[in-house]
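Justification of resources, computational component.

The compute hours requested in this renewal are based largely on the per-chain cost of generating structure records like the one below. Each record pairs the submitted sequence with a full structure-token output. That output is archived, and it is also reused by downstream analysis tasks.
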Amino acid sequence: MQQAKLHILLVDDDRIYQFAARKTIEATGFAEKIVIYSNGEDAINYLRHNVQDNNLLPDVIFLDVNMPIMNGWEFLEEYSHLKKELVKPVIIYVVSSSVDEFDVSKSRQYDTVKGYIVKPVLREKFRQILSSIQAA
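The structure output for this chain reads:
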């Protein structure tokens, strides 16, 4: 029996990265749907609007740190208040070009963050992450 494909939320303001990440994720074969937002505020509003809709909530969020309007850290703060209302668990990976140990360490302070990934993210890394989520 084939497992259901994953719903993915990509939150990143870099249009080139959005395009590359979408194509790379699609190439893994694990994604059913990829929703993209360019800032944390739009992404958090999407989650708030769909808090009770299991079909629209993502299985995983790939979250950039440095974005306009609401950055990744601000998103995580808002998400920490919202997560208890979600009808299903959502896994979050921080994805950033920053290799600053401060950012890596800060991401570990959030129990909702599963890992910190440095860009660029290769197809094998996405495949590894998504296959482990699908198998869970």
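The chain has one domain: 6-135. The chain has a mean pLDDT of 93.
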